[in-house]
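Subject: for your reference before the review

Hello V.,

The reviewers asked for a structural picture of the protein, and I figured it would be easier to keep everything in one thread rather than splitting it across files. Below is the amino acid sequence we used in the manuscript, unchanged from the supplementary table.
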Amino acid sequence: MSAACISYFGGKKLKLTHSYAGKELKHWNQAAFISGIERLLGLYKPETTLKQMNMMTSHDTDRMLDTYGGDEKRLKLSVIFSFLFPGAINIYYGEELGLPGAFNAGTRQGMPWKNEKIWDKDLLGLYKRLAALRKGDEAIKHGKFEFLKEYCDGRALAFRRSSGGEALLCLMNNSSSEVNLALKQGALGNKPGAVLNSGVKLKPAGPKKLTAVLAPWAYAVYRL
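And here is what came back from the structure prediction:
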């Protein structure tokens, strides 16, 4: 999962040598990303996938900030996807603070507990909100994962987690241009309300229809 996220969300500044994977990563377009994730989900039974440890980085890799070439917009999309993906999220210490570090050149330094000036408080806040969302949501902890391909247009990415009567839908824009998505009636439930939103606006588009306007690198998570 980590290699797929880096290949898709990484962009032009992606560092192609990912030490933990032990191989060179190539850029993926959206079709390749969706295909790769679906193949990954098909390798094991759903109950096994839900117990897998999802680790984006470790002491044997570059830190995420270095992996994404310092591009925090892309980094955030990758973090959100990893938190909402089936399995147990594993966070290497300091990633939530936006610490830099290349493999064997800063990735194993001590945690800067007493130096809050270098903490990325905005990124830390995102990690906290995602952790709280995971903790209290059955759809994320136990639910099915599926891409909503009618809304995946090469720039916008849409996917859903669902379990019983609970569901979450995530929209994100992995591009530098605004995206307008015409949503089907009821796609976001009867009373759309985002539990996480950065740059997504909903506009009426006729009787009981909505258009989701996604700013560049925007994301939103809706509880259905």
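For the response letter, the relevant points are probably these. Residues 2-135 form a domain with the TIM Barrel fold (CATH 3.20.20.80). Helices lie at 2-9, 30-41, 46-49, 64-67, 72-84, 121-135, 138-142.

Happy to draft the paragraph if you're swamped.

O.
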